[in-house]
Amino acid sequence: MTSRILVIASGGGHWQQLMEVRAAWAGQDALHVTTIAELPERFEATPFRIVPDCNRDDKRAILACGWALGRLMLSYRPHVVLSTGALPGVMALALGKMMGARTIWLDSVANAEEMSMSGRAARRFADLWLSQWPHVAEASGAEYAGSIL
After folding, report:
1. What is the pTM of this model?
2. Fewer Cβ close by (within 10 Å): the C or N end of the chain?
3. What architecture is domain 4-144?
């Protein structure tokens, strides 16, 4: 039986890094979720869904993203949720955790000095909480399993 895996990242570097580790879910039933419509096609990441982007400063956008993610997760019912960030990924981890999914956070390699704000928020929802920098992992209590760059 294949696992249903929801992989999610905001556009830009978060999505780029998520695509760098896609061999991890090869052969599984993976649904790719991002906030920019052109990205999945550019990376040949199918099937995919687009959700509204959000950040901590725009409460309406948070509600719109949460609503879209909730509907998506209820229909897809993932066994695993994996995110590289940012806020939409944290929200997906929280929803996945409530639904009984295993959750994985891989913090961005761009955060070389400390765990990102989204990464700190994701800690409470992540079964596996990773940093790509050994010293950041040690300081934050995250696990280090290597870097993707």
Report:
1. 0.96
2. N
3. 3-Layer(aba) Sandwich (3.40)
